[in-house]
Structure formats: C-alpha cells, structure tokens
Write a sequence for this structure.
C-alpha cells in the first residue's frame, strides 16, 4: 500500500524515533509498504517519520544508481544494495567531509549541497531482527546518513548555512502550507 509522505512542517519529522522490538505490529507489512511508497515517489530511501511514525526504522534501495555512470566504479556494490535498518545507531563517522547535492521526498523541489563524512560504521537490525555492524563508504554512506538523520529528527536543510536557509525559506513555506504539486501522495501539516 502506498502511504502519504509527510511534508516539511509536519511535527513528526522533528521527533527522535523510538526503538522497536521484533513484535512491532505488522512490521513486515510496514516495511513492504515503505518500499512501495518509496518506489512510487522515485526515492532511494525512506524513514518511518516520513510516513508519520516516530520509530527507528528506515529503508534504502540504491540499486538504480548502479546504472548511473557517476557510480560505474562501484556499480557492483550498488546493484544489490537494498536494506532495512531497524534501531540503527551510527557508531563512527570518519574520513573527509564531502559535499553532495541532496534532496528529500518530504521536501520536494529543494536540492542543496550537504557536507557529510565519507565513511560510517553503523549497528542495526535487519527485517529478520538479525544484528549487523557494518562499515559503508561513498554514496551508500551518504544515503544511510540522510535516512539516519530522519530517525534523529534532523532534516538535510538543518545542515545548511544560515544564508542558504534564508534563500530557501519561501520554498519551505510553500511546502509546509501544501502550495506545491508533486507526483506522489503527500500529507501536509497546514
């Protein structure tokens, strides 16, 4: 089932997610719905707060980037990169900070350069509640960091300079008031 994505201005996007257990109601269905919702919006990541749930769950599927010539040197790693992250905790962020133009399904029509560290080590449970501790670099680390921020109540716009924030203030107001038209289901705070 395709769920509406919460738009910038919705208070749930600012809540720190709560951990969940393997007995969370209809978890498999929720994960399936999150992937379906993400695909319908042409996204590569989606966090539970974006569908109105303040829990520590996000999904990523960056397999489409394997076809992008910008990532041809890591295409093999990307073509199977579909993951579920439950109760994730970033243990370490290392390496140089690099800027990349990010967008967000909750903040449509806004894209800005955001600096993030190049490598992360993250601990999480998968959809079967098997625990993992893994290290990721490159675009994989960036997508995971973006979605992880969501379960921390942080948006990519929070990482912008005061000047950039001022320049996009009008766009953000339009989004929060619902004065935009996007090609996927959204729920506006109004």
């Amino acid at each position: 089932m395709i769920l509406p994505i919460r738009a910038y201005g919705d208070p749930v996007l600012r809540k720190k997610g709560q951990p969940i257990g393997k007995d969370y109601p209809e978890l498999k269905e929720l994960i399936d719905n999150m992937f379906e919702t993400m695909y319908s919006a042409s996204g590569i990541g989606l966090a539970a707060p974006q569908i109105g749930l303040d829990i520590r769950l996000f999904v990523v599927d960056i397999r489409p980037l394997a076809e992008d010539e910008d990532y041809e040197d890591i295409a093999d790693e990307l073509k199977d990169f579909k993951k579920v992250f439950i109760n994730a905790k970033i243990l370490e962020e290392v390496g140089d900070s690099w800027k990349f133009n990010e967008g967000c399904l909750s903040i449509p029509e806004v894209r800005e350069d955001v600096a993030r560290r190049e490598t992360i080590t993250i601990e999480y449970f998968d959809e079967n509640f098997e625990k993992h501790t893994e290290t990721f670099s490159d675009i994989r680390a960036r997508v995971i960091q973006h979605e992880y921020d969501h379960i921390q109540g942080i948006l990519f716009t929070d990482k912008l300079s005061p000047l950039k924030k001022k320049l996009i203030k009008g766009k953000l107001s339009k989004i929060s008031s619902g004065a935009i038209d996007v090609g996927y289901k959204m729920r506006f705070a109004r």
About this structure: Residues 5-180 form a domain with the Peptide Deformylase fold (CATH 3.90.45.10).
